[in-house]
Each structure stands twice: as structure tokens, then as C-alpha cells.
Write a structure and sequence with these properties.
The protein has 268 residues and is of the alpha/beta class. 23% of the residues lie in helices and 21% in strands. It has five helices and 13 strands. The chain has a nine-stranded mixed β-sheet. Strands 1-2 form a two-stranded antiparallel sheet. Strand 9, helix 3 and strand 10 form a beta-alpha-beta unit. The longest helix is centred in the middle third of the chain and has 21 residues. It starts with 21 loop residues before the first strand and ends with a strand.
Length: 268
């Protein structure tokens, strides 16, 4: 899906923070138990920059370069399927997806080069590099990881497939679980039904209210779904349908830190 796929920066909290339900991961991930985010809880999406969480917030997502919010359940944002804007040089040239002319394929909305998860050998190499970021999330005290752009195959011009994406997310799930971290499915409602086989523990859904997709996530993840809306209409629809069961927040598209121009944060 990735209706917006917002990008920026964020952080996380200690393992002794808020407790969620325990989950025994799928055998294929060789995971121990991990702590899930509390459901229907106050949530803030801070990937555009960390700031003091508003009153009532129990769960926060921050970028892997940021630090956790003390006393909260912290989710660590990692751009796992695409390179950050201008960061192509951080990747081996052959790990960037290319078209028939040898040119790098980009997510045009965000100026991000797609990573080539089309073969097992490349998936293993990319997973090793992203895995170091996941390890960093663990070391900082995050309790979960949110790998973004799971749906990048839909922007690849048919050069990548859903099966490629799922094979790669399984590697990330195994790494996260080995680190004692829960792992979210980010967007991509069409693959939600495979969450158990893919080792995914909960969902982070952008604009599922706006696009009438929240039920696609709850059918697979139950109430373990976090919703981010970017419009008043989307928030209204999400709150009307799911405000009594899911964690829902409206943010501005740039996910601006509190105190900056453009900052928007609303809840049900």
C-alpha cells in the first residue's frame, strides 16, 4: 500500500517498560517470547523527530537513530526495503534494483532507491545490513521494530514480487525475534493473511481508515493494529469504525516534531 510511507527520524524505551501480551513466534523464526504493544492505547508517531510524548501516550514509534522514550513501549522504525534519500552510496551497487537499462529504480514519491530483494543471495546481504540496524534497536532498548516499505515490490515495475518481499521479511522477523524484539507488518494489507508464516507480530497501518482497509488488518492481527491517519476524514472514519478497539492517531504528513510549524496530532 504505502499511501504515504512517511520518512524521518525517531527512538525507543527500556525493556522494563509497559508490558503487552506475550507472543510465541512462528517456529520458522526460531523466536522466543516477545512483548507486544498494549492494544487500544495512546500512540504517537514520532519518526519525523523525537519530542516529549503527549499525556496519555503509552506507545511511541521513533527512528532507529533516535533514543527510546522512557517508561513507554517503543517501536523502532527502520527503512528496510528502500534506501534513504541520497543514501544509495551506503549500499553495494548490485543491491540497488535496476531497470533493463541499468538505471536504479526509485520510489518516485520519496526519492528512495528500491533495494533488490529478488534473489536469496541478495536478500541475505541486505538482511545482514538491515539486521545491524535492528541490533541497534535492541541495544538502545526498543521493544519492537517497524520495517518500512514491505510493499516496495508494488513500485518495482514487476521486477520484484510479493514472494520476494515475504522471503525477505521472514529474514528480518528471525533477526528481530533473535534480538527479543516484536516485529510489525507495515502497511501491505494484501499480505496480512500470511502474517503467521512470515513471523509478523502486529500491524502498523497508514490510512487504513481513509482507504477502508482496517478490517483487512484486524482479520489477521486482531486488535494488535496501530493506525496512523493523515487527514481529518481518515481519522473520522478510523475512529468511527475502530476507535473503541485500535490505537489510532492522526499526524501531519511530514510527521513534524511538536512545536514546529505544520505539527498536527489528533486522536479519537
Amino acid at each position: 500500500m504505502s499511501h504515504l510511507n512517511t520518512k524521518v527520524t525517531g527512538a525507543v524505551v527500556g525493556a522494563a517498560a509497559l508490558t503487552g501480551a506475550l507472543f510465541v513466534a512462528a517456529p520458522s523464526t526460531q523466536a522466543a517470547t516477545v512483548s507486544l504493544p498494549p492494544t487500544h492505547a495512546g500512540f504517537d508517531y514520532q519518526i519525523g523527530g523525537a519530542y516529549t510524548p503527549p499525556a496519555g501516550v503509552k506507545v511511541v514509534t521513533r527512528d532507529h537513530t533516535a533514543s527510546p522514550a522512557a517508561g513507554l513501549y517503543n517501536i523502532c522504525y527502520v527503512n528496510a526495503f528502500q534506501a534513504q534519500p541520497g543514501a544509495e552510496g551506503e549500499w553495494a551497487s548490485d543491491l540497488l534494483l535496476r531497470d533493463s537499462a541499468g538505471k536504479v529504480v526509485y520510489d518516485k514519491d520519496w526519492g528512495e532507491a528500491l533495494l533488490d530483494v529478488g534473489t536469496d543471495a541478495k536478500r541475505q546481504r541486505i538482511a545482514s545490513q538491515i539486521g545491524s540496524q535492528i541490533d541497534g534497536c535492541r541495544d538502545k532498548g526498543f521493544q519492537a521494530v517497524e520495517p518500512d516499505n514491505y510493499d516496495s515490490y508494488s513500485r518495482s515495475g514487476n521486477r520484484l514480487t510479493a514472494n520476494n518481499a515475504q522471503a525477505f521479511i521472514k529474514l528480518l522477523a528471525a533477526r528481530a525475534h533473535s534480538d527479543g524484539l516484536a516485529i510489525a507488518q507495515k502497511n501491505t494489507p494484501e499480505l496480512a493473511g500470511n502474517r503467521t508464516a512470515n513471523g509478523l507480530d502486529f500491524a502498523v497501518a497508514e490510512e487504513c481508515g481513509q482507504y477502508d482497509e482496517c478490517g483487512d488488518y484486524t482479520s489477521a492481527f486482531g486488535n494488535n493494529v496501530i493506525v496512523i491517519e493523515y487527514t481529518n476524514s481518515g481519522k473520522s472514519k478510523a475512529c468511527k469504525g475502530w476507535g473503541g478497539t485500535l490505537s489510532i492517531v492522526q499526524r501531519d504528513v511530514d510527521v513534524s516534531p511538536a512545536g514546529s510549524s505544520g505539527y498536527v496530532r489528533k486522536t479519537c
